[in-house]
Amino acid sequence: MKQIRTRFAPSPTGFLHVGGLRTALYNYLFAKKNGGKFLLRIEDTDQNRIVEGAVENLISTLNWSGVDYDEGPNKNGNHGPYIQSQRLEIYKKHAHQLVESGNAYQCFCTHERLEQVRAKLIEMHLPPSYDRLCRSLNPEQVIEKLNNNTPHVIRMKIPLIGEITFEDVVRGKVSIANKILDDQVIIKTDGFPTYHLAVVVDDHFMEISHVIRGEEWLPSTPKHILLYNFFGWEVPLFAHLPLLLNPDKSKLSKRQGDVAVEDFRAKGFLKESIINFIALLGWHPSDDREIFSFDELINEFTLERIGKSGAIFNIEKLQWLNQQHIRKLSAEEIFILLKNEFDKEGWLKYPEEYILKVINLMKERVLLLPDFVNLCKYFYEEPTSFTEESILKNWKDDSVNTIKSFVAELEKITDFTSVKIEESLKLFAVNIQVKPGIIINPLRLLISGTNVGPSVFHMAELLGKTKVLARINFGIQKLSSK
Predict the structure, then answer these.
(1) Where does residue 455 fall: left (phi above 0), alpha (psi -120 to 50 degrees), or beta otherwise?
(2) CB within 10 Å: which end of the chain, N or C, has fewer?
(3) 102: buried, middle or exposed (CB in 10 Å: 19+, 13-18, 0-12)?
(4) Cβ-count burial 437-469 (b if 16+ within 10 Å, e if not)
(5) What is the DSSP letter of 177?
(6) How many CA atoms lie within 13 A of 203 on its CB side?
(7) Whose CA is closest to 197, among 101, 87, 100, 109?
(8) Catalytic site residues?
(9) How many Cβ atoms from other residues are within 10 Å of residue 14's Cβ?
(10) Using one digit for the tens of pLDDT, what is the confidence trace for 364-405?
């Protein structure tokens, strides 16, 4: 049986988009599920659109996410080079083979003429396409123009009758009439190939068995199949993935917010949650599970369970998944991920055991990794001020007297644990005939400077008796002076 070989072939026109990572992930999962190989190829034939640093970002993002390629730039492989700009002679050779076999031709039309043809067709409410003028040039005319160094491109000679039919793993049977296909440019005037020639030549020589890519390439697939047929090569299987959509069903794009993987990584999303999330953007597991590890995705993944309709990019779902994956990490793992951030805050002066306890206490409450910094400052720094909102919500006219009385009870506790603190507070509440919340809310404000957080009893135990009493006394003085 032929080995499964898939590839991810991005253009270095920007940082890796979440849609691109999904394409890479599906190719990776399918290859690994079937004991195959996953390749990375850089398609940089459009030199005008290359963004500096994009290749490095593509590779580093794939490495960070765990979508590791078996062959590609900076890795050994028998099918390189894996950067298209280093394969130009291969494309030129095969383009000229097509000309010699009568399946392609030189086109000498100027840009101005092509624009005139295009404008006229649009005026007639017809789809813009090439009028095939140079297709009818005789050999003598072609030789004369070549001898005069007339700038030219090479175009496919699309059959004028018949149709191309193929079976797409996701879409099912697809048929497109040849007459609606344009005579596609395959070599540009600068000698660089277009995507259409390069992708077919590379996929053939890199022995790609399955082409898994975005549905935007579906209309081009008949041209690619024609090229395979022109060369007499075996056609790979195709699977075209559904679009990623915003909640309003518009196409996900940079104009409407963060779409680069780098953006989500910088905001504190775990790679495990990003991979889990994008795996579910179009692919449906065999059961109702939503939380997957990488290994579970490999075991579960099949192309047949990819849907046709666009997948909604729901940021709330990503946040929820991130929360679930954070909860699965140990405090030690989270500490390693955030050690540099803790160092910047000056918190590494605290014993690691204490920091791990803070992480464990807050782990159930955070959505993003930076929350372990932004929501936890009061465990490391004394609260020195209180917001008007938190005061209005938690500090009533009689709070001063209530808390002062409760301080006396706290001072009596020798075993300062959450259990003992809670017992003391509830007994005190019964004795003064108030609900526990009347004490808990102002107590939380004084201890943490906020009106939200974990259990005030666990918080107090972790901070310790001395620090809790000091904060209460400071807060009472601060609020009494208002």
Answers:
(1) beta
(2) N
(3) exposed
(4) ebbbbbbbbbbbbbbebbebbbbbbbbebeebb
(5) E
(6) 28
(7) 87
(8) 254
(9) 18
(10) 999 999 999 999 999 999 988 888 878 878 788 788 899 999
